[in-house]
Write a structure and sequence with these properties.
4 helices; CHP02574_addiction_mod; about 70 residues; single chain; Addiction module protein
Length: about 70
């Protein structure tokens, strides 16, 4: 009999962070992504890289970005 979800979860949480990340990626990939969504994300990534390379955008320090995100949800 296969292990239940609780047993699998307990086993997964004993993995190293790298192993958990690899498992999470495989599980998410197994759900079957919508090709149109994946294509849209790829186009967005390309657009952002082009803006960065052209100097059209500036990086925001992580601390500033997190502070803004925290303030937005309060």
């Amino acid at each position: 009999m296969p292990p239940n979800v609780s047993e699998l979860e307990a086993q997964a949480l004993r993995l190293s962070p790298e192993e958990r990340a690899r498992l999470a990626d495989k599980l998410l990939s197994s759900l079957g992504a919508d090709a149109a969504v994946e294509e849209a994300w790829a186009a967005e990534v390309d657009r952002r890289i082009q803006e960065w390379d052209a100097g059209a955008v500036q990086a925001v320090p992580l601390a500033d970005s997190l502070a803004r995100a925290r303030a937005a949800i309060r």
